[in-house]
Design a protein that fits this description.
About 3% of the residues have low confidence. The protein has four helices and 21 strands. Helix 3 packs across helix 4. The longest helix has 24 residues. The protein folds into two domains: 219 residues, Leucine-rich repeat, LRR (right-handed beta-alpha superhelix) (Alpha-Beta Horseshoe), CATH 3.80.10.10; 39 residues. The chain is an alpha/beta fold and 306 residues long. A hairpin with a 2-residue loop joins strand 7 and strand 8. It has an eight-stranded parallel beta sheet with strand order 2-4-6-12-14-16-18-19, with no helix packed on it. The protein is elongated and about 105 Å long.
Length: 306
C-alpha cells in the first residue's frame, strides 16, 4: 500500500484469495500495468480501480469475480484518449546489460503471448472467465484507444452497446459465452482494425452487419446464436406481405414498403369508383345491375336446392 510510485504490479497465476483490495486503486494510482489473472479473487470489482487513470493493461481474468462491470471505467484517461503518452515518455521495459527486465504473459487475439519490448504499445482490458452479470455499460464505448477487449465467459445480459463502433482502435474483441441478446449493432462495421472477433454462444439474433472485417472471420466467431448472413451459410429470411417467407436480404423489422402500400390503396380506390360511379350516375344501369343480382341469387338458390 505504501509503494505509491509503483507502475507495474504483476501477481498473476498464483493462489491469492479474498476480494481485490480497494487500496490498489486509491493508493497505487500511478499503476500502468495491473495483472491479477488466474487467482481465486472473489466479490465485486472495487470501484476504486477507476482511480487508475493511467492504466494501460488491466487484466482481472480467470478469477471468481461477480457483480456488474463498474460504470466509472470511463475514468481511465489513457484508454479514453484523454491523456496522451508517447513511447518516449513511458516504457514498461528497462534494458540492463542487454536483457529485458519487464515482460508480461497476456491473452490477445485468441492466443497467449509474452510481450516485452512492445509491452508499452499494448492497450488491454480483460475481465474474461469470471461470474460478472448485468449489462455491458455504455461507458465502455468511451475507451476509444483500447486495442484488446475481452469480456468472454461471464454471465453478461442485455444488448451490445450501440456505439461500440466508436472504439475504432480495437484489434481483438471477444464477447463469447455470455447471455447477450438482440441484434449486432451496425456500428461494428466501423471497426476496421479488427483481426480477432468472437460473439459465439450468446442469444444474438438478426443479420451480421456488412464490412470487410466482419465477413472475413469464420463461422465459429458467430456460432451458437440465431444470426444469419455472410459468413454464415444460413441466409437471412425476409417476410413477405402475404405471410410467406423467402430467402434474401434482411432489412430489419422496421422497414416498410411504402411504394407497394400506395399502389394497393390507389388500385382499390380507382377500381371501386370505376364500378360504383356509373351506378350512381345512371339510373338505368343501376336497375339492370339490381336485376342481375336478383337473377343470380335465384340461380344459386336453385342449384343449392337441387
Amino acid at each position: 500500500m505504501n509503494l505509491t510510485s509503483l507502475v507495474i504490479l504483476q501477481l498473476d497465476r498464483n493462489e491469492l484469495v479474498g476480494s481485490i483490495p480497494a487500496w490498489l486503486g486509491s493508493k497505487l494510482s500511478l499503476l500502468k500495468l495491473l495483472n491479477l489473472r488466474s487467482n481465486n479473487f472473489h466479490g465485486n470489482i472495487p470501484h476504486e480501480l477507476c482511480y487508475l487513470t493511467m492504466i494501460q493493461i488491466l487484466d482481472l481474468a480467470d478469477n471468481n469475480l461477480s457483480g456488474n462491470i463498474p460504470r466509472c471505467i470511463n475514468n481511465f484517461s489513457i484508454f479514453s484518449g484523454k491523456e496522451n503518452i508517447s513511447i518516449d515518455e513511458f516504457a514498461f521495459y528497462v534494458v540492463y546489460d542487454g536483457a529485458t527486465i519487464a515482460s508480461d504473459l497476456l491473452v490477445t487475439k485468441g492466443r497467449e503471448d509474452t510481450y516485452s519490448t512492445i509491452l508499452q504499445l499494448v492497450m488491454l482490458f480483460d475481465l474474461s472467465s469470471n461470474n460478472l452479470f448485468g449489462n455491458i455499460p455504455s461507458e465502455l464505448t468511451t475507451l476509444v484507444m483500447l486495442k484488446s477487449l475481452n469480456l468472454s465467459r461471464n454471465q453478461l445480459t442485455g444488448k451490445i452497446p450501440e456505439k461500440i463502433g466508436d472504439m475504432k482502435k480495437l484489434e481483438s474483441f471477444d464477447l463469447s459465452l455470455n447471455r447477450l441478446s438482440g441484434e449486432l449493432p451496425l456500428s461494428l462495421s466501423d471497426l476496421s482494425f479488427l483481426s480477432s472477433f468472437n460473439v459465439s454462444y450468446n442469444n444474438l439474433t438478426g443479420r451480421i452487419p456488412k464490412s470487410t472485417q466482419l465477413q472475413s472471420f469464420n463461422e465459429s466467431s458467430y456460432s451458437g446464436n440465431k444470426l444469419c448472413g455472410d459468413p454464415l451459410t444460413e441466409g437471412c429470411v425476409r417476410v413477405e406481405l402475404n405471410g410467406t417467407k423467402a430467402k434474401g436480404e434482411y432489412h430489419g423489422s422496421d422497414s416498410t414498403d411504402w411504394g407497394l402500400i400506395v399502389s394497393i390503396v390507389s388500385g382499390f380506390v380507382v377500381g371501386f369508383w370505376i364500378i360504383l360511379a356509373p351506378l350512381i350516375i345512371n339510373r338505368a344501369w343501376r336497375i339492370a345491375y339490381y336485376h342481375f343480382l336478383t337473377a343470380l341469387k335465384y340461380m344459386v338458390y336453385d342449384v343449392v336446392r337441387k
